[in-house]
Write a structure and sequence with these properties.
The structure holds two protein chains of two kinds. By secondary structure, chain A is an alpha/beta fold. Chain A has seven helices and six strands. Chain A starts with a helix and ends with a helix. Helices cover 33% and strands 33% of the residues of chain B. Classes of the chains: A alpha/beta, B alpha/beta.
Chain lengths: 162, 161
């Protein structure tokens, strides 16, 4: 599957509003959060500019694969413990999983955007963070070549789509 | 840079070329503490690295590489470095620790600021040796960030150690 073909899937997800436009102002009312992102140099600046524009108190966890890495059960155990500990100690109720396309970590494992999105849905289940008080939000950062955009992901609708 | 894989699928060989055009010279390993972030990224921008560095952020920075961490955590952090070496051909690693780090028990865990700094320096030196032994092509530099609160803003001063 070429990169252009994978971008067509992104377009389809946009049209179906599974990738939705973000309201950053809503996020800023949470009083801080834990964010998991990919360390990839291609997105670091853009991602930070976005995140820090609406919240200063961000505990950043940077792992290759970003939020998708939690889709792998063994990694979810190790990182999940850290997330719960940080959230408890710092009284944080929001976890943001940031993924991006094209992601070199995904490419290294010869996975497509479909596999990446499956990992993202599994990440929510594996993390064991969401509860009545705690929320998880998934963001998907897309580099179209001529522009970059970050979308919110409707995980429930994404599961049906996949 | 591109990587070429030979895959055996459905009884035929297929060549998969993964284009990884990106290279970035630097990997920064630092703590997840929110007070560090803005100052750190401003410092990297001033050094000319804006958009040109991979950043791995974990509690305590390079702490997981030294002996007190679990084997899984050590392996996981090594894997992060390995990904940056493989995917982006990094040449340099900055290890950045900071004062009052929660992963070390905060400032209160030490008898003095000097004792705290020495503990971080020792761990960074051990981590540096581990990285340079595994990846002799990499240059590792250690930095210590001082966080100071000033009028509800966190000032970050970073020095090479």
């Amino acid at each position: 599957m070429t990169q252009q073909e994978q971008l067509l899937i992104v377009s389809d997800l946009r049209q179906k509003n599974i990738f939705y436009s973000l309201d950053y102002k809503n996020l800023s009312r949470q009083g801080g959060f834990v964010a998991i992102f990919c360390p990839d140099c291609a997105v670091s600046h853009d991602k930070l500019t976005h995140l820090f524009s609406f919240e200063k108190r961000i505990y950043l966890l940077g792992y290759h694969g970003g939020g998708c890495v939690l889709g792998k059960p063994s990694e979810a155990v190790t990182i999940g413990k850290d997330i719960r500990l940080i959230a408890k100690n710092k009284n944080l109720k929001l976890l943001i999983l940031v993924s991006h396309f094209p992601c070199d970590w995904i490419g290294r494992q010869q996975l497509t955007i479909f596999d990446q999105l499956i990992l993202l849905t599994q990440a929510i289940d594996n993390t064991d963070f969401a509860s009545r008080d705690n929320k998880i939000i998934s963001l998907f950062h897309v580099n179209y070549g001529h522009k970059m955009r970050t979308y919110g992901v409707d995980i429930g609708e994404l599961k049906k789509y996949l | 840079m591109s990587k070429i894989f030979l895959l055996f699928i459905h009884n035929t060989y297929k060549v998969l070329i993964v284009m990884t055009n990106k290279t970035c010279e630097l990997l920064v390993i630092h703590c997840l503490d929110w007070r560090l972030q803005s100052g750190l990224h401003e410092w990297l921008r001033e050094k000319g690295y804006q958009g040109k560095y991979d950043q791995v952020a974990v509690a305590g920075g390079a702490k997981d590489l030294v002996s007190s961490a679990s084997a899984e955590k050590k392996y996981f952090l090594i894997e992060q470095i390995d990904n940056s070496v493989f995917l982006h051909n990094i040449q340099k690693v900055f290890l950045i620790h900071h004062n009052d780090c929660g992963a070390y028990g905060g400032r209160a865990a030490f008898a003095s600021d000097t004792a705290e700094k020495i503990a971080h320096l020792t761990d960074m030196e051990i981590a540096q040796e581990i990285i340079e032994t595994k990846y002799p092509q990499l240059t590792v530099e250690n930095y210590y960030a001082q966080l100071n609160e000033d009028n509800n803003e966190w000032r970050v001063t970073i020095e090479r150690v």
